[in-house]
Design a protein that fits this description.
Layout (H helix, E strand, L loop, with lengths): L2 H17 L6 E6 L2 E7 L2 H4 L6 H13 L7 E7 L3 H9 L4 E6 L24 E3 L4 H22 L1
Parallel strand pairs: 3-4, 4-5
Antiparallel strand pairs: 1-2, 1-3
Helix pairs in contact: 1-5
Keywords: Hydrolase, Metal-binding, tRNA processing, Zinc
Function: Catalyzes the deamination of adenosine to inosine at the wobble position 34 of tRNA(Arg2).
GO biological process, one term: tRNA wobble adenosine to inosine editing
């Protein structure tokens, strides 16, 4: 499968989050050309800071491989990772990250900073951004537009 096809699977995960009223962010973890884990955002449902799609995906990968290292995996996510998720990706030793939409307010894979290209870390990440960017961006834009309209209607 291609990066675009794997990102389509991450988009399907994001749609699951959206159905729960969550910010539509989804992710998939691929190892040896197979999807081994899927996750989506659950921060509003769980009311925990670390309930991002990437964090759940890393946890699932850790359980699957019985290791904190996720070497040989590619993480696909619909939104550019934040600083927390970027740090967890580095700690998990994930060698490749592919994301959809850029996040100008919290993105740490190029928008605000790029944690992944800091040579001082003992792990480097091959990064690809903007895959299915329009679809991933539209998911978020449409979600927040509906949310604002809903809140406005309740006032």
């Amino acid at each position: 499968m291609t990066d675009e096809e794997y990102m389509d699977l991450a988009i399907k995960e994001a749609l699951k989050a959206e159905q729960l009223g969550e910010v539509p962010i989804g992710a998939v973890l691929v190892y040896e050309n197979k999807v081994v884990a899927r996750a989506y955002n659950l921060r509003e449902t769980r009311q925990t800071t670390a309930s991002h799609a990437e964090m759940y995906l890393i946890e699932e990968g850790n359980k699957l491989f019985n290791s904190w290292r996720l070497e040989g995996c590619t993480l696909y996510v619909t939104l550019e990772p934040c600083q927390m998720c970027a740090g967890a990706i580095l700690q998990a030793r994930i060698p490749r990250v592919v994301f959809g939409a850029y996040d100008p307010k919290a993105g740490c894979a190029g928008s605000i900073i790029n944690i992944f290209e800091d040579q001082r870390f003992n792990h480097q990440v091959d990064l690809v951004g903007g895959v299915r960017e329009e679809e991933c961006s539209a998911l978020l834009t449409d979600f927040f537009r509906r949310l604002r309209a809903s809140r406005k209607g309740k006032k």
